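Appendix B. Raw example, untouched.
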Amino acid sequence: MRALIHKALDNPNKESILKEMQNICALSPKPEDLQAKLSKCACFPVRIPTGEIEWLTCTDPFAVVDRLKSGNIFRNKIKTLDFTLEEVHSLRAFLIGLKLEPRFMSKAVTEETRVNNGLLHQKLTNDFRKKGYAICR
C-alpha cells in the first residue's frame, strides 16, 4: 500500500496506479486496512464532465461505472472513475474494501420500463410471471 501512496503523491500515472491497485487486490487485504491506510490517498483518476482528469480520494464524490449502458448514458455528465469496465471489475475487491460499492452505477441507478398505450393481456402476463419465477428460483 505504501507503493500506491508514493505513486499517488509523486506525479500520478494511471497505468502504474492501476497496477498497484491490482497488486493490492492480489494480496486480499482486509477492508479495515485499506480504509485506514488509503482513505486520504488521492489515487483515483476521475474524469470530470469537461473531460479532464482529477486525482481524488475515496471520500470525494464520484461514480464507478460497472455497467456499459449506464456509463454511456452518464458520460460527460457526472464525475466517473476513469477506468475501463474490465479494470473496474478487476479492482472490485479493492473498491468494495474502500466502501465504494454504493457508488457503483449498478447500485445507484434504477431503470424503469414503461409502455404507453399498451393493453394488458392477463393470460400472457401470468404465463410470463410463471416463467420468470421458474428462472429466478
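End of appendix B.
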